Amino acid sequence: MELGGADLGQQDYLKLMMTQLQNQNPLDPVKNKEFIAQMAQMSQVKSVSKMTNMMETLAPFNKLSSAASLVGKDVEYEAPDSDTTQTGSVDQVTRKDGETVLKIGSDEIAADKIINVY
């Protein structure tokens, strides 16, 4: 969950719940159903956080795998250092400085510079 640009994690939820319990009205305490619902939300936040971390870890591999399917195919791409497009056959796919890069002839092209695949 995000609040004002800051991520709230499990520790934040625990602090909020403890503060709520400490400052609740003794004549109208938090009901068991509400407390259980808050615990379930905390568990969901933890699960979503784990899933987000896993997706962020897998994203580069997914990009590399997708780009690997282009090896041997002709593509149109934005030419490096120019406003023109060129075509060529993808010879190799690598990761360089955290980016998926396609080797086309002597050019190294970022995967996001591919315009068409033939």
Element layout with pairings:
Blueprint: E1 2-3, E2 6-7, H1 10-22, H2 32-68, E3 74-78, E4 85-96, E5 99-104, E6 107-110, E7 114-117
Antiparallel strand pairs: 1-2, 3-4, 3-7, 4-5, 5-6
Question: Can you walk me through this structure?
Answer:
With 118 residues, the chain is an alpha+beta fold. The chain has 2 domains: 2-64; 70-117, SH3 type barrels, CATH 2.30.30.140. 42% of the residues lie in helices and 30% in strands. It contains 2 helices and 7 strands; from the N terminus they run E-E-H-H-E-E-E-E-E. It has helices at 10-22, 32-68; strands at residues 2-3, 6-7, 74-78, 85-96, 99-104, 107-110, 114-117. A 5-stranded antiparallel sheet has the order 6-5-4-3-7. It has a two-stranded antiparallel sheet with strand order 1-2. It is rod-shaped. The model is unreliable at 1-5 (pLDDT under 50).
β-strand percent reads 25-35%
Uncertain runs are 1-5
Q: Give the terminus-to-terminus CA distance.
A: 42 Å
- Count of helices? 2
Mean pLDDT: 84
Question: What best-fitting shape do the alpha-carbon axes yield?
Answer: rod-shaped
Largest sheet: 5 strands, antiparallel
- The radius of gyration computed from the alpha-carbon positions, rounded to a whole number of angstroms, is 25 Å
Derived from helix and strand composition plus strand pairing, the structural class reads alpha+beta
Percent helix, as a range, is 40-55%
Which series of helices and strands comes N to C? EEHHEEEEE
Strand order of the largest sheet: 6-5-4-3-7
Number of domains: 2
